[in-house]
Specification:
Length: 85
């Protein structure tokens, strides 16, 4: 069964109550200080454009190399976030 995901403020969710009436729902309250990603990009390529080619590699990288590099990027991002807390 496909899931419908609706995200927004409580007021925005309530505005869709007719669509949800009679259905089981799950409410997850997000932290108020969760940053929202805002972009003027018109598509995914435009959004990711500055990141294309930022992984150092020679030739076409294999999947293990890509996974390793992305792991480093993600770990760096979350370690900076943890340091702020």
């Amino acid at each position: 069964m496909a899931q419908l995901v609706i995200e927004g403020t409580w007021e925005e969710i309530l505005a869709q109550q007719e669509q949800l009436r009679g259905k089981r729902v799950r409410v997850t309250v997000l932290e108020a200080n969760t940053p929202e990603v805002q972009t003027e990009a018109k598509n995914l390529l435009e959004f990711l454009g500055p990141f294309v080619g930022c992984i150092d590699s020679e030739g076409l990288p294999d999947a293990a190399k890509v996974e390793e590099e992305f792991g480093k990027i993600i770990e760096e991002k979350f370690s900076r976030r943890r340091a702020k807390e």
